[in-house]
Specification:
Layout lengths: L1 H11 L7 E7 L2 E7 L5 H5 L4 H17 L2 E6 L1
Parallel strand pairs: 2-3
Antiparallel strand pairs: 1-2
GO cellular component, one term: cytoplasm
InterPro entries: KH_dom-like_a/b, KH_sf_prok-type, KhpA
Function: A probable RNA chaperone. Forms a complex with KhpB which binds to cellular RNA and controls its expression. Plays a role in peptidoglycan (PG) homeostasis and cell length regulation.
């Protein structure tokens, strides 16, 4: 999952070298923390959170195939 999130984020931002992804596993769920440069935060979140919602939707669809749940936090 973290590779998918990193790929999507790097495709959107101007500074792909500053994209970091950390994962935290608990039981059968996974929390992924996405960090980007301050100037790229708006690009990852999008207007009214549309891009962030789309990222979460794609990741949840991929996680459903694996039988897990994923929470994406943008920091």
């Amino acid at each position: 999952m973290e590779k998918l999130i990193k790929f999507i984020a790097e495709s959107i931002v101007d500074n792909p070298s500053e994209v970091t992804v950390n994962k935290i596993e608990k039981n059968n769920s996974l929390t992924v923390e996405l960090s980007v440069a301050d100037e790229d935060m708006g690009k990852v979140i999008g207007k009214r959170g549309r891009i962030a919602k789309a990222i979460r939707t794609v990741v949840n669809a991929a996680a459903a195939k694996e039988g897990t749940t994923v929470k994406v936090d943008i920091k």
